[in-house]
Amino acid sequence: MNALRLASRLSSRASSQFLPRGGATAINSTGFRATNAAFQQSATANISTSLPAPKAPALHELGSVDHGFTDDRIDRIAEPERRAFTYLLLSGVRFAYASTARVLVVKFVSSMSASADVLALASAEFDVGGVGVGKTITVKWRGKPVFIRHRTPEEISTEASVSLDNLRDEEADEERTLQPEWLIVLGICTHLGCVPISGAGDYNGWFCPCHGSHYDVSGRIRKGPAPLNLEVPPYKFTGDAKILIG
């Protein structure tokens, strides 16, 4: 700015030396202004060209450079063993995860299964060698009463001759026994879960005094409100006089 002011003063002095004193100004004001503007532009150009151009900063002046990418980069062609080690490590970790998951699943499933004491109560063996013909014993299996009756030949023939048309829950006598002389049924009435009385009722089988259900010697409902026959549990003969229930 000081240079511009100096150039303006010099131009005004030079113009006053060439102009006559006291006379009317013959130079047009417009031409003078144009001359003054051109002079100022030339002075500004000389000043701007004399200033040095800004210098680009050096690379080290921009800050620190992270060489971690190039230093830690693995050359898979020059170092194939590094890739093999990586694959081996990943495979080992995945195998460990799979083994842990398998152990957890096995433990969870095994915790839901029945324990040893429960499995021991799931089946029970009974010796029926001392049960006389025409007699009934009551045993306990899974907390439920079970009737075991040693039937006479007359009872077997009588129950086998019953027509299915006369039964509410149609089931033949041979379908309810493995050996005709032995009948094994749950001692729970199918009406409301009472325990019937053995050797009673109109059919000499079982009678439920709660609501008057009558069962025959095959355990089939013959009279009363019970809808179904006495249930036959799963059983098998393990000997001539031994029965395994369950």
Structure description:
With about 250 residues, this protein is an alpha+beta fold. About 35% of the residues lie in helices and about 15% in strands. The strands form 3 sheets. The protein has a 4-stranded antiparallel beta sheet, with no helix packed on it. A 3-stranded antiparallel beta sheet has the order 1-10-9, with no helix packed on it. The chain has a 3-stranded antiparallel beta sheet with strand order 2-3-4, with no helix packed on it. Mean pLDDT is about 80; it is low at about 15-30.
Structure keywords:
246 residues, alpha+beta, 4-stranded antiparallel beta sheet, 3-stranded antiparallel beta sheet, 6 helices
* Helical stretch tally: 6
Q: Quaternary arrangement of the chains shown?
A: single chain
Derived from helix and strand composition plus strand pairing, the structural class reads alpha+beta
First and last CA, distance: 116 Å
Q: How big is the Rg?
A: 58 Å
Beta content: 15-25%
Low-confidence stretches: 14-29
Order of helices and strands: HHHHHEEEHEEEEEEE
Strand count, sense and closure of the main sheet? 4 strands, antiparallel
How many beta-strand runs? 10
